[in-house]
Amino acid sequence: MKTGARDTAKKSPWKRRGLVALEILLVVVIVYSIHWWRTRDLLPDAGITPVPGFELQDLQGNRWSEASLSGVTVLYFFAPWCGVCNSSAHQLRWFHRWSGDVRLVLVALDWASIDEVREYADRHGLEVPVLVGDPGTARRFRIAGYPTYYVISDGHIVQRDYGFSTAVGLWWRSLQAGA
Where are the beta strands (DSSP E) in 6-62? Predict the structure, then answer.
């Protein structure tokens, strides 16, 4: 009887399951490590960090501050030129429709003109408050890339992330915040 390739192909089911489990663990570790690396400079999200102070206007001229963010709020920072932000806009619309008591507030950063921000909101049919931020806002919230968002509850940061997110992902994070 020939040995070799045929014998190695007949691994026990337990060995195969062990290898699959090891591969899954490796993927989880890699994904978590990438997430940690991307969010390492953001404000802490353990529910003990208060929302940094700010005073900004929305596109209608209304004044907003950190005190305006009652209940559970997703504060979403974007740049009008950002490709990922443009791709995420439909997810934001869906989240706004499904979110119930969770408020969604967008903050435009790194824009060339107010008209550019208005055009972005109109093009994507965003019917949520769009605040006009500045470099000071970006520094206070430690925004290094777009999109970045914080989930806020009772004036404290309870979740945070960077990059594309789905409506379900935003809903899940806001649910964890007590929405």
Answer: 49-50, 55-58
